[in-house]
Automatic annotation (TrEMBL):
This is PLDX1 protein. The keyword Transcription does not apply. It is a single-pass type I membrane protein. InterPro entries: PLXDC. It is found in: Membrane. PANTHER family: PLEXIN DOMAIN-CONTAINING PROTEIN 1 (PTHR13055:SF10), TUMOR ENDOTHELIAL MARKER 7 RELATED (PTHR13055). Keywords: Membrane, Signal, Transmembrane, Transmembrane helix. One of its GO terms (cellular component) is membrane. Belongs to the plexin family. Coiled coil: none annotated. Its main location: membrane.
Amino acid sequence: GTVFVVQWDKVYLQGKEDMGSFTFQAALHSSGRIVFGYKEIPVPVLQISASQHPVKAGLSDAFMVLNPSPDVPESRRRTIYEYHRVELDTSRISSLSAVEFTPLPS
């Protein structure tokens, strides 16, 4: 088709299961549009502890490098290098909301 959708159902914050579950999705359209849909957001995103559960919402172009970890030979350390970032205002994310990114004509 024309769209690829990934949905996360009933996601709980570790150690904060009593807050309720989150359900949200990302839709990538063949036209270049990207839509983030938020079905269930049980608490305002700004009330989520940034130290325990850092929240990032938006788009970025980046790449990831896996390097061997010096401490544990079998594991790898993930490093993400970002070029640009467009962040959403997390205070505006709520249940039954959506954000649409449309590509420039170029």
